[in-house]
Amino acid sequence: xxxxxxxxxxxxxxxxxxxxxxxxxxxxxxxxxxxxIRVKAPNSPIYHETHALxxxxxxxxxxxxxxxxxxxxxxxQRHATMMIMGETCTRACSFCNVATGQPDALDxxxxxxxxxxxxxxxxxxxxxxxxxxxDLPDGGAAHFAAVIRAIRAAAPATTIxxxxxxxxxxxxxxxxxxxxxxxxxxxxxxxVPRLYPTIRPGARYFQSLxxxxxxxxxxxxxxxxxxxxxxxGEARPEIMQVMDDLRVADVDFLTLGQYLQPxxxxxxxxxxxxxxxxxxxxxxxxxxxxxxxSATPLTRSSYHADADFAALQAARSHQLAGASA
Length: 325
Ligand code: SF4
Prior knowledge:
This protein is of the alpha/beta class. Helices cover 36% and strands 15% of the residues. Iron/sulfur cluster binds at residues 62-63, 68, 70-71, 74, 79, 81, 300, 302-303.
């Protein structure tokens, strides 16, 4: 049985200890952020409207659960990334601020509440992500598909991007999500393979790559996307190798952002990569053939996802026009 202690999470809402598995780890002091990592304070009227709509619909967002630094900017433009299947994850990655433990049963009403929020926000493009649900027989694939279908019904003009877990290699799960036809299928590799045992211990690098490859084989019309955090101690040649692996899997869109340490119990930042360093990675990635690359210190999987989706479509049209010329 998992025993967790009550502490404050959001103002006025008592919550359980978020990371019981990390409680006894030695502290990693949090480094001061460099001058190029500056974010807007979350205080615009639209930010508060977005917050109120999420609470009114009983929705969880990764923006809050992951303590994303971009929340002020994104929510001020009504861009919230909804996290389905609860707020408790069955994994315990050492970079992630999402709470760990035994999740609740799936909520059958959630797909319609997500769809209602998407319609009310008037989103052109929405990103839906989830916690890992290794406790479910399909890893949560059918619930992802139900959310996609509900959004299609409530907001048919909205394009849909899913950012999924690896479904714990459960047979048939990826096929279920692909059959619901999201516009973008994102699955993050997160880091280089050498660092998986310490940073992403519950996952397998080549399994994640295979998942992305499978999506493209099952439905080549779906854009595939993956992301990495940098600053965890990886070496440049290792990032180059991951880019090559992603291109072999025919992944369209690569995101690269700076890892930021959520608490003293999480993995330490090994390096703050400079904006010029990100520009260098972006230049190399474009040369390797990705349709789109987003590489800045504050890039996150869902950051500017609506504008990026438009850019992806334009890049594919350009590519197809070039191929038929
Ligand atoms: S970058 Fe993504 S997770 Fe962060 S606030 Fe924006 S939408 Fe939310």
